[in-house]
Amino acid sequence: MTLTPHEVAVSQLATDQAVPLDRIKSLRFIKNNIIGNKTKKDLYIQLGIVSRLQDIISVKDDKDSQLKIQAVIVLGSFAFGNESNILALTNSGVVEPLLNCLNPSGDPKLIEAAARTLNAIYASPKASRHQLFMGNHLHVLVQLLDTFSSKHRPGQEIVQVHTAELVASILARCCETLEQQMQIADSGAIPLLMRLLASGISKSQEAALGALAALVKDNPELAQVIAQMRLEKGERPAPFILRLVRDKSPTMRLAAATCLTYLNRAGVIPEHDGDIMLIVLPILVKMLQLTGAVQEAAPQVLAHLIWESENMQKAVCDMEAIPKLASIISQMDEEDNVYGIVGQKDKLKENSLLALAAISQLKEDCRKQVIEAKVLSHIVSAMSHPAVGVRAAACQCTRSLSRSVKNLRTSLVDAGIENPLFQLLSDEDLGVLRSATATLCNIVLDVSPMKKTIMERGIVTKFVRMISYGDNVVRLNTVWAIKNLVFEAESEVKENVMRQFGYNNLVLLLNDSEPAVQEQALNLVRNLAHKREHDIEQVFKGLGNGQLLSIIEEKLSWDDPRLLEHALYVLVNIATGSEYHKQSILKRQGILRSVLRSMNHESAAIRVASIWVIINLTWPDDKVPHSVHECVTLLRNMGVEDRLLALNADHDLDVRDRVKTALHHFLMDQQQYGHNNGNGVPSDQTGSGNGRHGHSSSRYHDLQQQQQQQQDNSTSSSSSSGDAFGGGAGSSMDTTHIVTGGSGAGGHDRR
Amino acid sequence: MPVFARIATADPVEATAISTLDHLFEGKQKSGTNSYDVVVDIKHVSLNDSTLCGYLHIKGLTREYPELTTFFDAEIIGPQYSFLTRKWDATDITDEEHWALFQQFQGDLYNMEAHQEDLRDGDVVFMRWKEHFLVPDHRVEGITGASFAGFYYICYNKRTGDINGFQQLTLSHVEERKSFGSYEFR
């Protein structure tokens, strides 16, 4: 059997060959065969070339640097192949010897070649990076950034500059976690990168920008450090990079824009907010019309920049970014259909969808433009795309668009998002699940026509599974969705949901380790108890009177205003129920004290909520007037009335309006039963307004003066009838009416 | 009246903040000698965008549809929308005539300073309401005898809870038990 030339070449690399020249010839032969040739690369790997090359470069002495260089170059060629080639390299342990080739005392050309090969290997996200951070390697690597070092040999400047650029690129690719970012920073890379940035050599500057961007991404500490540094002439990096963002090279512009985006998001360059809007944003939008790698990356950077920023989203809308993105996405779909190619431009599609999701995140105008661009059908089909990133991005789009009553009722239901969305709820990818569950929160709203059909598909059973999924965001989104689902729902729907979901699960959520989850769970109770006495009764039955109110009492003691607000509204809603429901609140001193305390909360919304509790508890009811009187007396004795009187001067209009209604109840009671003589015995049952005038009523007299004054000053049309002290059986208690009455003389006793 | 479409916005922070505002109103819509029972149900308010939206239920408007519900949205006059409509074929004179129909309107179409915080703090809120489509089936384009191509000039009196509108659309707040659910977009 004869060997093929390839087998010959590989065997000649064996270390026991005495003649290095022959080995170099073999290497050249191999190199020429594999460049650009996928089949040959696979062939050589199968022939075991990687370990041979590894042996060559692992030799300790420096004699055969030419041999090593050629071997490293051949390895580099494999690294430019596909991902399985790269994995073949890393799996055989070739990274460590390559890192060793970076030894500064070695041949600069060897160092450059090793850096180039490593850079190509790290282009794959799957290549493991941990060897880089072990031992002395990181330090050695970072030192190579220093092109001015006295250690460098003369005449090798160009090689050294190339090496520095490659090293910056390696750092950019190995900088994904917080730990990695901090380790690289600690090794002294930043000042050297700054020097590279100011070097005036385009490729070096681009490489430096890439590394700096990777260091500041999602890292406020490093972002602050870098933003505060000074370049050679004393200038800070941001204004310098702002000039680079207008460079004639699109790759430079992209690198600069990316760096500025991350600095902006970290909030460390507020003085440049205007520049970001006026300069960086339009430049990114223009990149959408380029091609290649720049066009592919630009939408993702854009999305990152404008996320959560209404102003920027609106600005990007005005720049007509949406039609551009829409045409990118639709064109790709058309090409896929014609050529049957799937997967080639996945990243471009994913990033474009992400950009659309970001643009339509907050402004209804922007959502409208997305719908009008007729790209929705493409978004929906992308929800079933084989690539995870594309699915997740498409789902984010749907989520942004679904934050609109109009869209829920029209475009989204017409586009048929329900099916794909339901499928995504079983996706294996966590990012997709988070997006899908978030979108679900909006789909199950009262106003959405899809609510009914998605319930028929058994969404509640899915909810039960997702609660125990084990991810905080998924759990939060699930409770949120249930909360939205039962908002204003019919009693049967509520009962159906809770029967499947289970009150015991609800209790677990009310005691969840995440306050945000607790908040949603409380809101859920609030919505269950809203609207009908029957619904309140169901909650009482499901949770048990004692447990329900104990939970509320506990939440009322928290400092968190969101928990406090929902807990108060649970009480507000319970207090619209039956006498039994009201009494269960009134029996609890702890709860009443918390409500009283909340009336002085710094947040007006909380004060309003607590006053509503009082209003509902003291709501006049002719069927049980004595019970109402007892309640008023109880609250009065606790100091509620005094507190209300003080709040009459609150600076918040809503608070003042509610106070008036609440005080009206106390006033009516006082009119009917007279000055409180301690045992609640009514002194005058006729309610004709002739009760004894004691201490309390002089307060009311002045109160009426105040209110009359306010009313006179307001621009509203005068409120109509309504005897201040009457009310009568079953009259409408419109809470926005101001109590009118006689206006006597007398001082204003302001409390 | 020409057609315009302006959409209400969703803002997760605000849904709870406004959950305690009155949202149901009932009254009458007068057209010529006819009078129809009307119920307005406000579904969502966005203070940030100065918009709100909801449903308008009308009874007895046409024989074919004895009960009709449309979806409408609103521009709240204030920092974002001025008294001058500048669209829907409405001239400055049209605007002047109609706003003047409200007693609370102080007569100055151009003074927006006084109206920067109406929804939050003012006693009176002015709006334009525009109906868009039928609920539940939004694809129905038109109904014989009914038109939702125009818009309404609206004055909402927060003190009394009354809403008044152009064409004698008079609504007053519905007495209901004060219980409050809450939802938020995610």
UniProtKB/TrEMBL annotation, chain A:
Transmembrane segments: none annotated. It is found in: Cytoplasm; Nucleus. Residues 741-751 have a biased composition (Gly residues). It comes from the Eukaryota. Keywords: Cytoplasm, Nucleus, Repeat. InterPro entries: ARM-like, ARM-type_fold, Armadillo, ARMC8/Vid28. Residues 672-751 are annotated as: Disordered. PANTHER family: ARMADILLO REPEAT-CONTAINING PROTEIN 8. GO terms for cellular component: cytoplasm; GID complex; nucleus. It comes from Linnemannia gamsii. One of its GO terms (biological process) is proteasome-mediated ubiquitin-dependent protein catabolic process. Coiled coil: none annotated. SMART domains: ARM (SM00185). Residues 672-686 have a biased composition (Polar residues). This is Armadillo repeat-containing protein 8. Residues 704-723 have a biased composition (Low complexity). Pfam families: Arm.
UniProtKB/TrEMBL annotation, chain B:
It holds the Pfam family Vac_ImportDeg. InterPro entries: GID4/10-like. Belongs to the GID4/VID24 family. This is Vacuolar import and degradation protein. It comes from Linnemannia gamsii.
